[in-house]
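Lecture 7, part 2: worked example. A protein chain together with nicotinamide-adenine-dinucleotide.
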Amino acid sequence: MSKNQNKTGSYSFFNCIEKNFDKAARFISIEKGLLEQIKACNSVYRMHFPVKIGKEIKVIEAYRVQHSHHKLPCKGGIRYSMKVNQDEIMTLAALMTYKCAIVDVPFGGAKGGIKIDPQTISSENIEKITRRYTSELIKKNFIGPGIDVPAPDYGTGEREMSWIFDTFLSLRSGDVDALACVTGKPVSQGGVRGRKEATGLGVFYGIRELCHVKEEMYSVGLDVGLVGKKIIIQGLGNVGYHAASFFHESGAIIIALAEREGAIYNEKGLNVSKVFLHLRNNGSILNFPEAKNIENTEKALELECDILIPAALENVIHKNNANRIKAKIIGEAANGPITPEADEILDKKGMIIVPDIYLNAGGVTVSYFEWLKNLSHVRYGRMEKKFRENVNAEFLKIIETVCKKKISIEEKKMILRGPREIDLVRSGLEDTMINGFHKIRDLKKSLKIENMRTAAFVLSINKIIDSYEKLGIFP
Ligand code: NAD
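Predicted complex, written out as structure tokens:
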């Protein structure tokens, strides 16, 4: 048993990341001290605060971890779950550092968490807890547009981000950049169009890119392209739902969807929006008319498929079920869904694993766009949309005159269109995910690295080293 393993022989979540980091470090020749600095969490804030719920005072446990200050502000989501603990939040903060570096988002990694079960607490009380947590962060200087910028994660969404912003503004009134203290806000509160679906869409772009590479597809015995690929998705929350919708729209076949209470299966494919409607109306995905129920939700991961997308929580693929996973490709939409032991088993089976530090970076990429929008105080496309449309109209007139041909109204509409915010955000995200994929793959090939995860870590660590080297070490 290694020094990183606990009594049961499993690794702590943070040790899992350290293990991945160490595998990558074999391909990097740099002073050991610098690697140790990159690995370590720079600041950990663990807090307990009281909140009056009904007639009782409840003590709430919460965290904010800033893993790396090599770039500021720090950035990372806030999760609400009874499983929240220091090890988990430290790990997720570290993942954020590596993720931001891969997609060239100039932030250090951070993460926050509150140990509550939002499903059993009224929204008034969630609001109280969120506002009190924000005021604790303000007191200790752990939040601000240039310091640390939270975002949504497991169990949180636009609603919580709005409360965080409002609390920040109340306590920092007059700060003209206050909107940039948090991302993932509703569009009416300074959010950016396209943020809600960004992580799921990024997952889609990343997997689509992989499926277009002949060499990769042939290595696992699949045809090129996404159309007709059989996909299983675990978790129908923000990330899983949007990823499932984009895969479905692009012609892939969603054969199973798994939630907490069980999974549903149809070999011919599930209609994702109909399943979502069924979930909304019944509070469960089970008993969907066009599918078979699978009572034990974990069993859905073990079904025959081309692509498996875990999009719920960490450590769902572990040494006890890894041997039974039959997918050819696993796309890590969730953070840390595969333990290091399982990773080794799956690697030996020759599966392609697209790692979380790349694949779910769509959320932070679009959060970066939101942050920039908030600091520039202007909506994307506002200044150039009409100008572009006028220039396009002039071009069209010239083309029609030269070619002596009239273009149809439908074609005209398409050609004349100036960029809207959603177009710019999505094209920025698509470009980021495509570039990220090829940078990782090129590095994997040139250094003969065994898998995409290690290659992604090497890419990321090299970029962080570059930052430290250019900055120097403050005495
Ligand atoms: P979410 O709370 O919106 O959704 C999570 C879903 O998983 C819920 O529907 C929940 O019921 C389901 N779930 C919980 N336990 C399950 C189980 N045992 N089996 C099947 N389903 C289960 O959370 P989210 O924002 O979609 O985040 C999901 C994952 O993606 C997390 O690991 C998160 O850290 C990661 N992530 C999220 C974002 C983002 O922008 N929201 C960005 C990057 C990474």
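The CA atoms of residues 49 and 60 lie 5 Å apart. The longest helix spans residues 421-446. Keep this in mind for problem set question 3.
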